[in-house]
Amino acid sequence: MNVADFGDRYRERIWETHIAEDFERDVVAGFAAARKAIPSKYLYDALGSALFEAIVLLPEYELPRRESALLERYVGEIVERAQGRLRLLELGSGSSQKTRTLIEAAIERYGAVEYTALDISLDAVRNAAVQLLDHYPNVTVRALVGDYFQVLGEVAPQPATLALFLGSNLGNYPGERGVEFLRAVRGALAPADMLLLGVDLRKDRALMERAYNDAIGVTAAFSKNVLARVNRDLGAKIDIGNFKHSSVFDERTGSVESYLVAIRAASYSLGGARKAVQFAVGERIHIESSHKFTHDELQRLADACGFVERGFFTDEESAFALVLLERGENATKKS
User: Fold this and answer.
1) Helix, strand or coil for residue 284?
2) Which among 47, 143, 215, 272 could disulfide-bond with 12, CB atoms 3.0 to 4.6 Å apart, if both were Cys?
3) Whose CA is closest to 39, among 202, 122, 148, 166?
């Protein structure tokens, strides 16, 4: 079974991307920087995505289970507050598994739902669409395939929308990048449309770091896989065994910062005529920021981006939250 079997219940639009060229440019520039870095979006090739699916099952990584429990507990209130909203717009939809709770509640409340999935992976969107369309006769699916900023900048607002950005993915956009992202989302929404965020909250340092340093090393494999991608896609000759995974909470940034750390000094070819990259003992490659929010911080961010908080739902330990925002009428404030 494929999406073509569902006729006009499925539509898709694909934006042109230049992933190979962007990857080469960003890796070369990141290795040439004073503080070496690889953008976190490159962690999610086919193997990286599969490893992340394993990470969400780890006992140390509680975020998905806390988010699912909150959705189950508050889904009725969330759907009720988003009165008359029959379109769900999910950013970074992936497999769409966690969205089913909202889809089912919306069908029960409104009878039918249009589910719009925005993701960089065409295969992921199509596979998820087949499952949703087969399981829910009252659902139509629209797929938007491309980079977030690329797609959001071109999608016209469609009233009666509840947008979703779950999994604490907002934490991968710290500081001004988060402001830029939420303003792009606001631009794709009509006044009074809603945005539901799933966010990891600031808590005990040991608990935050434990989530990114699991005992059996799945997160380490996920991190190191980006070097395997560099070797494969660029023809580089990096010794992956010379790097160890490290994730630490940085009080200054408010984020868990993840790195690959060189064990020994080394020089590696990046393939072709590219300049070799040098590593000193202990030198780090930054691969991901996972910001941990406070409620006050989220309120300031929402205000700066033209949203008004309409609901803040958290668990008993105040470890994770769902935040329901409404797109305001007024222009965004300059930060």
Assistant:
1) strand
2) 143
3) 148
Q: What is the pLDDT along the chain (335 residues), one digit of tens a residue?
A: 788 888 899 999 999 888 889 999 999 999 999 999 999 999 988 899 889 989 999 999 999 999 999 999 999 999 888 766 678 999 987 667 778 999 999 999 888 899 999 988 888 889 889 999 999 999 999 999 988 888 998 888 887 899 999 999 999 998 899 999 999 999 999 998 999 999 999 999 999 999 999 999 999 999 999 999 999 999 999 999 999 999 999 999 999 999 999 999 999 999 988 999 999 999 999 999 999 999 999 999 999 999 999 999 999 999 999 999 999 876 555 54
Right CATH for 61-202+293-327 from 2.60.40.10, 3.30.70.20, 3.30.230.10, 3.40.50.150: 3.40.50.150
Say what the pTM is: 0.91
C-alpha torsion 314→327→149→68, nearest 10: 20
